[in-house]
Amino acid sequence: xxxxxxxxxxxxxxxxxxxxxxxxxxxxxxxxxxxxxxxxxxxxxxxxxxxxxxxxxxxxxxxxxxxxxxxxxxxxxxxxxxxxxxxxxxxxxxxxxxxxxxxxxxxxxxxxxxxxxxxxxxxxxxxxxxxxxxxxxxxxxxxxxxxxxxxxxxxxxxxxxxxxxxxxxxxxxxxxxxxxxxxxxxxxxxxxxxxxxxxxxxxxxxxxxxxxxxxxxxxxxxxxxxxxxxxxxxxxxxxxxxxxxxxxxxxxxxxxxxxxxxxxxxxxxxxxxxxxxxxxxxxxxxxxxxxxxxxxxxxxxxxxxxxxxxxxxxxxxxxxxxxxxxxxxxxxxxxxxxxxxxxxxxxxxxxxxxxxxxxxxxxxxxxxxxxxxxxxxxxxxxxxxxxxxxxxxxxxxxxxxxxxxxxxxxxxxxxxxxxxxxxxxxxxxxxxxxxxxxxxxxxxxxxxxxxxxxxxxxxxxxxxxxxxxxxxxxxxxxxxxxxxxxxxxxxxxxxxxxxxxxxxxxxxxxxxxxxxxxxxxxxxxxxxxxxxxxxxxxxxxxxxxxxxxxxxxxxxxxxxxxxxxxxxxxxxxxxxxxxxxxxxxxxxxxxxxxxxxxxxxxxxxxxxxxxxxxxxxxxxxxxxxxxxxxxxxxxxxxxxxxxxxxxxxxxxxxxxxxxxxxxxxxxxxxxxxxxxxxxxxxxx
Length: 684
What we know:
- The protein is of the alpha+beta class.
- The protein is built from 19 helices and 24 strands.
- Strands 13, 14, 15, 16, 17, 18, 19 and 20 form an eight-stranded mixed β-sheet that branches. The protein has a five-stranded mixed β-sheet with strand order 5-10-11-2-12, with no helix packed on it.
- Strand 14 and strand 15 (about 195-200) form a beta hairpin.
- Helix 3 packs across helix 10 (about 445-470) and helix 5 packs across helix 8.
- The longest helix has about 30 residues, at about 320-350.
- The protein is elongated, with a radius of gyration of 31 Å.
- Residues about 5-25 and about 390-410 have low confidence and may be disordered.
């Protein structure tokens, strides 16, 4: 055996040792018990077996339908000939999120019941042995531990029934967890890749959340939206679904402020079911919101530097050519927006809980943006000069006409600028924009595409208006030396963007990888300076480029394999119970969903939420501030946003002492924030 093969065997052995040690460390101390409802039972009667699995805090196990991943509890009985066991009766599950996947299960405790039927003429009436072997999974974060437990008990057959007094406490808990069974079925239909369910009864207005769990192997996506038609009939709408499920039995769970209720319902497919249709004025309002939001986005700090670059380019074009470039820029914006919407919708379809700006939660994407903006900064400073062969060689792949080559590459640059605008726009959220984006993700695909088209038209509207009305060109300054001066000044906001992205990256990765990232920027600057100042041979340039590519690939590989996300010492990791517990104690809460890469969030923090005026106001009125930091991916924050049909940030919610939420606008001022909270809650 050669040395390389020996090293492979040693690595495999060490990996198995590590996995084994992880299992030892992850061994849980769950408590399992088997209890019968009666000590003695009469012939022909039913005795209930209670299997109680009490898990360690933070651990969970799976329901009878675990969802995408997991395995449910399985039982193996050893019973006397005159006793038979029926199927397991399950309690109401809860939704479990793990690494972007949704599963159905039970946290901290699982209590199931199994009916045991005694025959009418038992031959043996002495204490009969009952033996049960249970197999289940106990999971926490990325660890799942298979557990097995064998339990024994006895029961005596007599003419009279004698109840086990200890079973009363288990039965009380069981009645709280078991769903109420409804005789009237619910009807459903699949339209526009969404599951529409018409319920046979009204849903109270005080319901906070709704969950749907299919007893069979159907996988129902969440969140479940509640819609009422003109006759106040209740409908439930599930997110995208590929095929129409067969009729099934399911549990609907309604979560209120201080308790929850559940119902077991039969669901029947009705292809003729009418669904509530949104009025045309509502659709037009959403499209207008998208158009206005895109227009306002042009003056946000995310987009303005790119907007200035494009405006600088158009001033160099005659009016007749500027129209072509404006259309190419518009197509770049719209196509990239629709691509981003399709990607986000597809990831949601396979179970990932994501929101607007999700790609900025990736350190790899942030680092790629840093390198891109660094190159743009150097280009504006004239530290990068690409030869004409570079511009024409790309176009030669498509045409043989040199004149058309130059025109095509010019339009390609405008198209790519539109894509760059979309990428840089995602950290910002303009007024009206969140409402439109949220509607796009819960509406039909056709309406969703139209919403993003109008959003793209809003972003590109300054150039479209300028190209459609050539007379406006007389108000623009004439080309001259001022353009080179302005071009270099525009390097300042782009360079500041690089520094800001480095700060965002520092919130997501370890200090060691951050040093590598800074070193990569210095390498880019030195490399561009060498190419600009010295007449290097082609071979030397290619060697430097290959070395750069290898080094940058190693940094990306380290980010992918070992991101080492830092744990914030000032902002605790957000969990839903951070809100639920204070609300039960009748506390006033202000929820701030933010992220380091969200520029609008940082502006609101500096101008409003971080001011002494707001801090004193919150302290005087006993308002607890909870910060949900979405810089890194957190499925619980995404789920919280979904509860309000929101996909982007900033997002602000105030809860009064009764737990009633109020959503605040995205752009805050101290006076507006104080007035809104006082007017709606405190003065009541």
